[in-house]
Amino acid sequence: MANFRKRIRAAADRLAEVGRARPRPPVLLPDRDAFASWVDRDVVPALTPGLAVATFDRSGVRWARGFGVRRAGFDEPCAADTPFRWFSVTKVLTAMMTMRLVEAGVFRLDDRVEEVLPWFEHLDREGRVDIEDLLRHRSGIDNPPPFGWGRPVEAAGWDVPTEVKRKALGRPPIGEANYGRPLYTNLGYLVLGEVIRSAAGEPFEVLADREILGPLGLDQTRFGSPDPDTAAFPHELVYHPRPWVFATAAGAPRRFIDGRAGPFVRVHPFRLMGTAFGDASGSVCDLAALGMAHLNDGAGVISPPSAELMRTGVAGYGLGWHVAPGVVSHTGSGIGYRSELRLLPAEGRGVAVLSNVGHFDTGPIADAILRAEGP
User: Could you say which of 57, 131, 235, 310 has the lowest number of CB atoms within 10 Å?
Assistant: First the structure.
């Protein structure tokens, strides 16, 4: 059974790389105007209907702009204040909320998960997994394909605590071979969301709205499906199988596809099961403000030592961040959207990119604008 699951996971990973839209910037883009001309000419609408880009430093947003449209086939321009789904960049917010609770004495990073969620002992029979293990993706919980984690926005939601418990206990028990091994896992962050809810007595999204979004002034950021009157709608490339696989797994293939416009399939707005792993939506300016908070050592929302610990990598993972030499970042990718938040701490600057095609590589966009701006 374990080998079968590994084969399914490997097949899903290969599917995720099929036909990804990869922008190819010119070698020379000397300034923002040249960058914007290239995006207008070659990126929108050939690779994504809409895009939003912002650069920032410790003092504020340097430059922000929207490109293209919110919905393919409609004259609804994207702007710097257009909300997009962030997907896994939400994990930065989850880690910040965790550190807020640590600083408040609600729990410690080395508290065992089973002490907060007694049912977890059936998955972690040796009682080894602590809260920091969940944050650093080393709990040993695997990363199942998120089939069935989405439903049309008008459909009924989930009993999330029950559903997370069911999904977690349906995975193989955590053993010696996988505990402590770095493995990115959305399910681990769903469990972390339940740790937060159980320990604090409030859902993660309620706490985060009050303790993180409000204090940082992220006024366009929310949890759940973004407002269709203002947000960028989700899309995928016509020739990619992912929207059909997602829709079929959700049990609603016809209700999940809203038609075709040029090279894009319009995906029906949807809700996600659980919040802590990837359910935030917001504008690129809000995403930049989140990055600025971390360039400013937590901006008073978390303490400088907590912010530093979040940026400290172990086997490539910080607390809610990916950490590489000179770069602290996170991307978000799922049906219909792609996001990226990248910090260059030594230079005191960063970049945020949002796209309303999920199968889109934001890396070349971030690279190109950072080069065009210079330090």
Answer: 57
Residue 264 one-letter amino acid: F
Distance CA 369, CA 352 (A): 10
pLDDT in tens, 27-75: 889 999 999 999 999 999 899 999 999 999 999 999 999 999 999 999 9
DSSP state of 172: P
This prediction has a pTM of 0.93
Average pLDDT over every residue of 112-135: 97
Which pLDDT tens digit goes with each residue over 141-164? Answer: 999 988 788 888 988 899 999 999
CB 356 within 8 A of CB 50: yes
Distance CA 346, CA 81 (A): 28
Q: Give the strand pairing for 257-261 and 270-272.
A: unpaired
Q: Of how many residues is the chain composed?
A: 375
Q: How many domains does the chain contain in total?
A: 1
Say what angle helices 284-295 and 90-103 make with each other, to 10 degrees: 40
Indicate whether 113 belongs to any domain.
Answer: yes
Domain around 107: 30-373
Domain-located, residue 6: no
**Is 84 domain-assigned?**
yes
Q: Find the DSSP H helices in 209-319.
A: 214-216, 242-249, 253-256, 284-295, 304-310
Q: What is the pLDDT of residues 265-276, one digit of tens each?
A: 999 999 999 999
- Which pLDDT value is given to residue 52? 98
Do residues 278 and 88 lie in contact, with contact meaning Cβ atoms separated by under 8 Å?
yes
In a domain, 9, yes or no: no
Residue 99 in contact with residue 91, Cβ under 8 Å?
no
Structure-block tokens of residue 41: 């000419």
How far apart CA 346 and CA 220 sit, in angstroms, is 29
| Calpha distance 78→69 (Å, rounded) | 5
Cβ neighbours around 169 below 10 Å, total: 12
The pLDDT tens digits of the residues spanning 207-231 come to 999 999 999 999 999 999 999 999 9
> Are 143 and 192 contacting, i.e. CB atoms less than 8 angstroms apart?
no
Give the pLDDT confidence of 273-300 residue by residue, as tens digits: 999 999 999 999 999 999 999 999 999 9
CATH number for the domain that contains residue 245: 3.40.710.10
